[in-house]
Design goal:
The chain is built from 5 helices and 5 strands.
Length: 185
């Protein structure tokens, strides 16, 4: 069976990020045929079209990692009812130069994680909107809005809430099927 690679993008840069903790929990839940890697995006210079043709090395590396991936997982907090700038910047960098969109056709899913009660719904849907434009088929169901994240992890950063673990395992299983369907042609 072919090993399928999943590029994971976390929109929170905070060391104790709940989105990063959730991403690490999901990494442990991936089936054997899926290999995940968290792709760092915090040090990417902001997208500037004037740099095209002499792109920073980090832009080129990001585009290569996206192209090498079979599927994409996004973890995002919500800042002011939208995605963090670092995540939007990665989308912009990966979609350029015009006509060379690295994201195109890669199956994806989104998990939004927050300490609040709404599950970062706004960020999740803003990210979906951007992904549609860059031609990324995003898994529709199940949607993953993780609320009250401050109560879900222990001091070591491990996910300890059983119902959240069960939900994320269901999500991962559906995502594995989503990737298989979109990469089997």
């Amino acid at each position: 069976m072919k090993n399928t690679t999943i590029a994971i993008f976390v929109g929170s840069l905070r060391k104790g990020s709940y989105n990063l903790k959730a991403a690490k929990a999901v990494l442990e839940m991936l089936p054997e045929n899926l290999t995940g890697e968290i792709i760092p995006i915090g040090d990417l210079p902001f997208f500037n079209e004037d740099l095209e043709g002499s792109e920073p090395e980090s832009w080129l590396q990001l585009r290569q990692k996206i192209k090498a991936a079979d599927g994409l997982l996004f973890f995002t907090p919500e800042y002011n009812r939208s995605v963090p700038a670092v995540l939007k910047n990665a989308l912009d960098v990966g979609s350029r130069p015009y006509g060379q969109n690295s994201w195109a056709g890669k199956p994806a899913a989104i998990v939004s994680v927050t300490i609040g009660t709404v599950g970062a719904f706004g960020a999740n849907h803003h990210l979906r909107q951007s992904l549609v434009f860059v031609d990324v088929p995003v898994m529709a169901q199940p949607e993953a809005y993780i609320s009250n994240a401050g109560n879900l992890f222990n001091e070591e950063g491990k996910l300890t809430n059983e119902s959240t673990q069960e939900f994320l395992q269901l999500f991962v299983n559906k995502f594995a099927q989503w990737v298989k369907v979109h990469t089997s042609h």
